[in-house]
Amino acid sequence: MNRARLKAELRARKISLHRHMLRVLGFEFNPNSAAPSCVALSPSERHRGSGVGAEMTLDWERTKITDAKEWQDQVRAKLIELSGYGRFGGPPGVNHLKDCANRDGFRHRSLYLKVRDGLDLPVRMVWDPGFEPDGKIPVMICLQGTNSGMHLSWGEERMPADPIKIYYGADIARQAAARGFLAICLEQSCFGERRERSLFSPSEAVCIDSANHALLLGRSLVGERASDVTSLINWLVEGAPGIAIDLEQIYIVGSSAGGTTALFASAMDERIAGVIASGCIGFIRDTLLTRGDPEGQNVVPGILRWFELDAVVALVAPRPFITVSGDCDHIWPFDGAQKVVESARNIYAAFGADDLLAAIRAEGGHRFYPNLTWSAFANLLIKADHALPKALRSAASV
Fold first, then answer.
1. Does 192 share its domain with 333?
2. Which tens digits make up the pLDDT trace of 122-151?
3. 119 closest CA partner among 217, 204, 201
């Protein structure tokens, strides 16, 4: 090794040691000279949720539209455009349908829906066989968040963290089936069976590659996930699910990233009769723009040019909508969810449905809260004059 190279390596090690010592002592290592206090240099300061690029032109308070339905039509069309959401034609084909062994007293059926080449959706149906002969059964589409997969929804443990997550209420399909619904679990893109396995050198964060690729194609990951929900509903409505279902009672429940998909799918697909979007609500300017995001799951390009998350919630009106968040949730705290819901209430009020929108405070962190959630949802469905399964009606407090 020549002398110049040796000196360069020694200087590199000196800088590295200095940086390491500062970090050990709890200090930031900043190799740059201190900037004047009056200048803004961090990229995040350029992206604050106001000013150029965040005009929110279609915000209800800023538009001159006075008719709530007309406003919804314009906002929904813009959200479809921005997110890349699409219906992809008629019902998808069915592959590898099979009846599985009963679990916990519930029937299980698995299948794959082929939407198009390159897009197959794993689905698991879970229901109480005692409800099948009694006529049409209401449907609850169940979506997991950033977890190991949809198997959590029926209480199956496959990964080390699964038992704890199920203990804290991740088995949402099993809960729904116990309350009289046909629970339909949909594997979300990037999780479980749909985790990326084909890329050369994929990123460590499981969603970021898919999110970036969607953006390159003029879509978004959340828009693609909402499209998957619509493909599932196309099959329920136009296909042959093999069980007599009530097409007027197709509901959806999701927690965290699953709740985000539930919200956006319901905002764009009006066939969904009611929504539980748990642990996923907060103004974009107070959440995504204030913290790091290694996954990119919630990014809709250009959304702040037109509206905020309260407008997306308002697109669900006048259908029942509930969000439940823990008061100590470190990602989507209740206070933020409450602000969004209250801001969306004026659209619900314009439809005469302001009592069908609710934000529920839970005591705890970022997780699903079964008893609190199902009770509150039952109350909303009663107010909306929906027919409740007997097992769910017993959970209501009104």
1. yes
2. 999 999 988 754 578 999 999 999 999 999
3. 217
